[in-house]
Structure formats: C-alpha cells, structure tokens
C-alpha cells in the first residue's frame, strides 16, 4: 500500500525532486556570492580606470573613446550584478516553498514570477552560473516543456530581470549618470569636461583590445 501511495505521489508531483532542487538553489546562491565579490572588484577597477581617463581629458560622449567603451561595459556589468541579486532572492523564495511545489501539479501563482525569472536567467547566465540550467531542467520535468517555452512569451518574468539581462545599448541618461558619479569624486572641473579625443594605438584592458586615445588641445 505504501509503495502504491509513493508511486501515486510521484506521478502526481511530476517526479519533482525537491532535494535536488534544494541543493541546486544552494549552489546557485553560493556561486553568486563568489561571483559578486569578483565582479565588485572588477567594477571598482573599471571605475578607477574611467576616472583616470576622464582626468586625462577623454571624451565619454564620443562612442569610440576608451572611456565611453568602458562606461558601457561598466553599465552592463552592474546590470548583471543586480540581476544576480534578483536570482539569489528568487532561489531563496523557491527554497522556502519547496513543500508547496512538491504537492501542487501546476505552478503556484505566487511562485510563477520567481520560477519564470530563474528559467529566463538560465538562458542568459549559464556561462557563469551553470547550475541555473539544472534548475531549468528540474522545472521542465515538473511543469513540462510548454511551461518553459512560454516563459519568454509571457509577462511572468520580472520586468527588472528582463531589463538587467537585456542586450540593449546603454541609454544616454545611464551614461550621464555614470559620468557624474565618477567625475565628482575625481574632481573633474568644467574645463576638463570639454573632452576631445583622437585614436592612437591599441590599448589592452583586462585582456580586451580597445583603442587608446590621447587628448589634443
């Protein structure tokens, strides 16, 4: 009788492995903790480099300048970092509701955004957080392929997650915000804001080739 009951529950629950889901979310959160420390260090280095370039007179408005390129890269990295904070929160939410997920055939309404957002993130962050792909497979096994495919076609994903993980170009106001954040502590005055730069030789930043620029006045 107990065996029959276990088989019935297994079928009803879509063969959901709550233990595996729990362990995977822990791995995701732990991975984010390590990534966050590294990214915060990289972001600090980028900000210092941008500050030095602005002090040398580089024009961050010119899209071909190293300063501008680094600012756009900085914005992308900060967006990813914010997305990781969201992923961590959604993982913790799922962990706290595993018993509910276990007994309900359909995805609970109050967990749709969290689970959909994790599936959405898996397709975009797997290179740094491969465990997200494992989570995606767990949810696919639980709720079916159609549920996973529908994630990108519905509004279930948290809008801020979509924004932070998008490949769009940086907005002008985002560029301006970073410039102001960096310029003020660097004591860059109005005269230095009259940036004008010209391309010279290749320049390497963290192993990535950019064009280096020198200010001409």
UniProtKB/TrEMBL annotation:
Secretion signal span: none
GO biological process: protein transport
Any Pfam family: Ist1
Highest taxon, organism lineage: Eukaryota
Residues passing through the membrane, by range: none
Protein family: Belongs to the IST1 family.
PANTHER family assigned: IST1 FAMILY MEMBER (PTHR12161), REGULATOR OF VPS4 ACTIVITY IN THE MVB PATHWAY PROTEIN (PTHR12161:SF55)
Descriptive protein name: IST1-like protein
């Amino acid at each position: 009788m107990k065996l029959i009951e276990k088989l019935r529950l297994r079928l009803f629950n879509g063969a959901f492995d709550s233990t595996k889901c729990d362990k995977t979310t822990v791995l995701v959160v732990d991975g984010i903790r390590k990534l966050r420390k590294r990214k915060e260090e990289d972001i600090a280095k980028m900000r210092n480099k941008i500050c030095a370039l602005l002090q040398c007179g580089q024009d961050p408005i010119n899209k071909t300048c190293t300063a501008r390129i680094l600012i756009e890269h900085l914005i992308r990295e900060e967006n990813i970092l914010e997305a990781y904070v969201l992923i961590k929160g959604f993982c913790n939410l799922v962990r706290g509701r595993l018993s509910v997920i276990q007994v309900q055939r359909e995805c609970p309404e109050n967990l749709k955004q969290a689970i959909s957002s994790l599936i959405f993130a898996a397709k975009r962050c797997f290179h740094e957080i491969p465990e997200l792909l494992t989570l995606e497979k767990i949810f696919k096994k639980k709720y079916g392929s159609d549920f996973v495919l529908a994630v990108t076609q519905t509004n279930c994903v948290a809008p801020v997650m979509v924004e932070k993980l998008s490949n769009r170009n940086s907005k002008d106001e985002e560029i301006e915000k970073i410039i102001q954040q960096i310029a003020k502590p660097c004591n860059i005055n109005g005269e230095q804001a009259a940036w004008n730069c010209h391309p010279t030789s290749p320049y390497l930043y963290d192993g990535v080739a950019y064009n280096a620029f020198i200010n001409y006045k």
